[in-house]
Fold this sequence. Notes:
This protein is about 55% helix and about 0% strand. By secondary structure, the protein is an all-alpha fold. The protein is elongated and about 85 Å long.
Amino acid sequence: MLRMRKQMPILLTVVPVFLLAFLVRAPHVNPPNDPTHSMEAVLQPPPEVAGTLRRACGDCHSNETKWPWYSQVEPLGSILTEDVEKGRRALNFSEWRNDKRAAAVLLAACEAVESGRMPKSGYRTMHPDKTPTGTEVRALCAWTQRTGLQLLTSSSTKHKRPAGD
Ligand code: HEC
């Protein structure tokens, strides 16, 4: 008993330290970012559309993820990390190219938001303020449709800026 009592304070320090080591993870590091390669630089969307995409999608679909506090606490940290890795692979607004897929990607972005599939539901729960409003979704989709069509019909692979810019 006496031995046990002596060990208690040690256990009381060691156990929480171990638990913390498991639950708290190192801060995340974003990949290097070159703003000239971004979708915003290449396609120059209207500021309100760019703002919506940054706010609602940027954490998972860009190299400029703003890692929230819970990203350092397990198991939420691992869930978000996986979402960011998969999200960047599916669509990365920081590494934009006007290739053959570009128009389809823009239209898919509109469809994903309109259907409520994106942003992902867990993320919407954690960040209700980042969820796009109906007006924002309409503005986004009007732009993706306009730009998608321009990309499809432009003769060269390079995107032509809309007249009047
Ligand atoms: C919490 C992270 C997260 C946020 C925020 C997010 N996405 Fe995604 N997105 C993903 C992941 C992960 C995938 C890969 C497929 C999957 O797991 O559903 C994906 C896939 C996609 C795809 C391709 C597949 C599909 O479902 O059409 C599109 C398009 C897309 N996202 C658009 C968006 C747009 C537009 C926004 C902002 C309004 C957004 N996403 C916000 C994580 C996210």
